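Weekly puzzle thread! Below is a chain. First person to post its structure in token form gets bragging rights.
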Amino acid sequence: MSDNDQARIALFLDMLASERGAAKNTRLAYAADLAQASAVLSAGLARADAAALARLAAHWAPLARATAARKTSAVRQFLAFLHREGLRADDPGKDFARPQSPRPLPRTLAPGAVEALFTTLAGRRVAAPQDPRLIRLSALIELLYGSGLRASELVSLPRHAIREHAGYLILAGKGGRERLVPIGRAADAAVMAHAALVPRESKWLFPSRRSHLSRLRLWQLLKWLAAEAGLPPEHISPHVLRHAFATHLLEGGADLRAVQTLLGHADISTTQIYTHVASQALIDLVNQRHPLVQKP
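Winning reply:
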């Protein structure tokens, strides 16, 4: 990598950290992609023209579509940064075509399936009201589906993160970005019941031996509950309940920007995929029930 490329890439990475608050792993990924692009262009990335970008695209063509799209995006953002900062007169990256990668729709649950989970758990609680494992599971499920927490955020909640009847908590989530997380009345009651069983000196709300509950253990608990509820365990995971939280909010008429804030997405395009999930239910309804479908 030439000194010119190296210096320009360093400036770009500094901008990602200072202006966008990009996490360390994100900056490392950008650095690796841009260093590779610079090597392919014989250290001429910062001054690349349309012909150079075409060579770069040809070099990346054999890669998986998602990988090529990520690398292309890094180059486009880098060249746009140089142009915006007056470090080059033009921005050829605008015409650097990104490989189109079809984004899979997130797996979610129908409201009836979610209700089956809660009904089953409530039944187990009635049979064993003092079982601390069921009390903990109630708190976990309420927070996953009722607040849309990521699994890593949930299992690592501090012991005193949720104050009784506060209705929300402020969470430092992915990339260090803070967001407001709603805590409904049912979740509040479930968490308080569980917290009463956790030593006040505990660092974690969901402690487990020397640390907090692991994501793997959370996953296992959900699989068990799904099987108890008569649902296919392979269809249930912490992330599926997070998806259900977002999808059911949108189906209920929630604003997309509000859901973006609740999920902690930096880019609204990440949230928009849930609109496709919600729309699919309408498409299926028309395809199954419209009178014209019944005609030969």
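Puzzle host: Confirmed. Bonus trivia for everyone else. The chain has a mean pLDDT of 82.
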